[in-house]
């Protein structure tokens, strides 16, 4: 039973970390998109308004995500979810950092080549 709870908390922690990464990537994309909209707006009021709205919603999503991360442990404790102490914001950020490192390693040229993954195994 304990191993199943451990597995469930790991899965939930990974899902939360991936969601946080997706929100942060979306926020960065929206802000960069808004900057390009400002640059290429030609002082068109409609385009400038769209750019400002993009920035507003990006900041709103960022703040809501941070609030959720810091309110989640308290909320889970209040409703007495088993293992609530595992879902702290620091654990979520550590898991997100692990996912981000994995993604960066895939694109990193100094990482281990795929051909060496099977060098230790004999067929």
Measured as a percent range, the helix fraction is over 70%
Distance between the termini: 37 Å
Report on the biggest sheet. none
Structural class: mainly alpha
- What is the number of helices? 3
How many discrete domains?
A: 1
Inertia-based shape: elongated
Mean pLDDT over the residues:
82
* Number of separate strands: 0
Helix and strand run: HHH
- Oligomeric category: single chain
Low-confidence stretches: none
Proportion of residues in extended strands: under 5%
Topology:
Blueprint: H1 2-39, H2 45-78, H3 89-107
Helix pairs in contact: 1-2, 1-3
Summarize the structure.
By secondary structure, this protein is mostly helical.
Describe this entry's structure for a reader.
The chain has 123 residues and is an all-alpha fold. It has one domain. 74% of the residues lie in helices and 0% in strands. The two termini are 37 Å apart.
Protein traits:
0% strand; 123 residues; elongated; 3 helices; mainly alpha; single chain
């Amino acid at each position: 039973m304990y191993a199943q709870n451990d597995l469930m908390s790991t899965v939930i922690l990974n899902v939360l970390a991936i969601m946080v990464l997706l929100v942060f990537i979306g926020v960065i994309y929206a802000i960069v998109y808004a900057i390009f909209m400002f640059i290429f707006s030609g002082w068109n009021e409609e385009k400038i308004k769209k750019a400002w709205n993009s920035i507003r919603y990006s900041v709103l999503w960022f703040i809501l995500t941070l609030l959720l991360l810091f309110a989640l442990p308290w909320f889970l404790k209040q409703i007495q979810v088993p293992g609530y102490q595992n879902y702290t914001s620091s654990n979520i950020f550590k898991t997100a950092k692990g996912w981000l490192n994995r993604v960066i390693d895939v694109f990193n040229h100094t990482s281990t080549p795929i051909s060496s993954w099977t060098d230790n195994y004999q067929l």
